[in-house]
Design goal:
By secondary structure, this protein is mainly beta. Helix content is about 10%, strand content about 30%. It has a domain of about 130 residues: Agglutinin, subunit A, CATH 2.90.10. The strands form three sheets. The protein has a four-stranded antiparallel β-sheet with strand order 1-6-7-8, with no helix packed on it. A hairpin with a 7-residue loop joins strand 2 and strand 3. Keywords: Signal.
């Protein structure tokens, strides 16, 4: 008795080709980036007369920047203003309020989906802890919320869940029990 297969080799090949195509299209690639804290400082007035370096893709009214008020100690922050030339920019969120970084520190969205701030020696100072959680990109939504999102547009992580010293419209202040110590980020 001979074995027979219902599909001929060309149709089997097409089946596997389309299966591979389907899986490759369904696996969205992370929009990775790395920015280095280097170069000239910005020319505009800022809160606390801080020196700052704007990160390229982020534009007004919210901008991601490295800033410092003490030489050699930088914070990754979101600033806000309505008009560049007439308004003082205000710092409204900080990634690393307790752990400054140095010149040449990096801010990266890694291929695994983790958003990371690291010193030049590679030591991680701050992270969203979103590795392997389906993150495909980062954006700043109009209200100033920095979000990491998945391939369906769902927020995986958002800065509004991690307030520093300023609340923006639409953001809430998380409540803590009196017997819990505050967490540093």
């Amino acid at each position: 008795m001979a074995l027979t297969f219902p599909a001929s080799p060309p149709s089997l090949f097409l089946f596997f080709f389309f299966l591979l195509l389907f899986f490759s299209l369904s696996q969205a690639q992370v929009q990775t980036f790395t920015y280095v804290n280097e170069g000239e400082f910005g020319p505009y007035i800022t809160e606390n007369d801080a020196d700052y370096r704007v990160l390229p893709p982020f534009s007004s009214p919210f901008q991601m920047c490295f800033y410092n008020t003490t030489p050699g100690e930088f914070y990754l922050a979101l600033r806000m203003a309505t008009r560049r030339s007439e308004s003082t920019f205000r710092w409204v969120w900080r990634a690393n309020p307790f752990s400054p970084v140095r010149d040449n520190a990096t801010f990266s969205l890694r291929p695994d989906g983790d958003l990371v701030l690291a010193n030049p020696d590679g030591k991680i100072v701050w992270s969203t802890n979103t590795a392997n959680k389906g993150v495909v990109g980062l954006k700043i939504v109009p209200g100033g919320n920095i979000v990491l999102y998945d391939n369906k547009g769902k927020f995986v992580w958002q800065s509004f869940d991690h307030p520093t010293d300023t609340l923006l419209v639409g953001q809430s202040l998380p409540c803590q029990r009196a017997d819990q110590a505050p967490q540093q980020e």
